[in-house]
Amino acid sequence: MIMEYTNNSCRPIHILFVGAGAVGCFYASRLHHPASNIHVSLVCRSNYSIIAKSGVTLKTHTFGDYQFKPAAVYSSISDAATSKEAPAEGWDYVVVTIKALPDVTDDSMDIEPLIKRAPTGKTCILLIQNGVGVEEPHRARFPSNPLISAVTIISAEQISQGVVRQNRWTRISMGTYSDGLGGKTWEAKQLNERGNQCVKELVHLFTEYGKLRDAEFYDEISNQHVRWHKICINASMNPSAVLSGGIGNADMVMDPELRMHLKGCMDEVFKAAPAILGTPFPEKLAKPDLILTSSERNKGGRPSMLIDWEAGRPMELEVILGNPVRIARRHGVEMPRLQSLYALLKSAQGRRDAEKASKKVLEQEALKVKSTL
Ligand SMILES: NC(=O)c1ccc[n+]([C@@H]2O[C@H](COP(=O)([O-])OP(=O)(O)OC[C@H]3O[C@@H](n4cnc5c(N)ncnc54)[C@H](OP(=O)(O)O)[C@@H]3O)[C@@H](O)[C@H]2O)c1
């Protein structure tokens, strides 16, 4: 559901993206419009020096190639939170675009100094991350801040430090998150209304200045449907790509046994989500058979979980598998296929990390021995 919104005020809008990777740099570059008083800054990490020096190079399928020079570039969250140049009244929007890894870091705790820079409840937090349940830690830590949950359909990657390639798609679907139930109490209703205003403003900014054709407004519950619908794809395809030995989406769906397995996973989410959200999936959302058929065309598509696994990085296992399984269970629904994928991959990741750690210890000991010889 797309809603009209016109922001006629010329007030400055200060936006800070935390996580200058593929998704962060792409959407930040679309929002930055200093001539219209929209100022977008980035919190970087390993790519800080190159982005601080030269900005971000975008190579996009949709908008061609261009350079993005942020309003400010920070080397860390604490650098941004304590900077004298940062807006004195804090940011209007803090956008979280780091990978969602609650088993490694608590994003809500990490961004607290940024939110505290503004008067209580002023900053709107926008999460552009995969998975479900990502909102809960932020809602608990920042009870009076508007919180927006965004689902993206995009294929983008950082191909070298400070260079981001968008391969296809731009869709960003956004909805407020008050209590996850659409605002049941008086306080949640107020938050829900403020959140909706922020979503409308963001849709306007992305559409008017970012020239995105598919920045979408959703109400709180409809947005959770979109999130769970994406889980249907991510929770089936991503772990299966790893456990099947590194096969991409199109090849998986062409294998009859794997296709049956993927359909079984998707059916579980299709059964669980309505029980969790209290309403059926809207008819317009593609059913498992259609998702499988359209995946046949996604040749070369490799899920990010597979790429992270191959690179030895932590995978977004908890938000893509662990949370869905736990949330469904709280609502009396078991998802046995997803639970098996979760158990197997969590164990494989644990073993991989333990082996990496013991290899490191052995290498350090060998170095010590060498230096005493
Ligand atoms: N890429 C896609 O096509 C796509 C599509 C749909 C959804 N998503 C979702 O979007 C989210 C972001 O994904 P992505 O592909 O953009 O990931 P990414 O390219 O790995 O970017 C994440 C960035 O966050 C930085 N970061 C991590 N912790 C940080 C911290 N504490 N402070 C500052 N920077 C920090 C990382 O820095 P380092 O490089 O130093 O680690 C990296 O630059 C994920 O939830 C993903 O599942 C991605």
TrEMBL record:
InterPro entries: 6-PGluconate_DH-like_C_sf, 6PGD_dom2, ApbA, KPA_reductase, KPR-Related, KPR_N, NAD(P)-bd_dom_sf. This is 2-dehydropantoate 2-reductase. It holds the Pfam family ApbA_C. One of its GO terms (molecular function) is 2-dehydropantoate 2-reductase activity. The chain crosses the membrane at residues 12-29. Residues 15-178 form the Ketopantoate reductase N-terminal domain. One of its GO terms (biological process) is pantothenate biosynthetic process. Residues 224-347 form the Ketopantoate reductase C-terminal domain. SUPFAM superfamilies: 6-phosphogluconate dehydrogenase C-terminal domain-like, NAD(P)-binding Rossmann-fold domains. The keyword Coiled coil does not apply. One of its GO terms (cellular component) is cytoplasm. Belongs to the ketopantoate reductase family. It comes from the Eukaryota. Keywords: Membrane, NADP, Oxidoreductase, Transmembrane, Transmembrane helix.
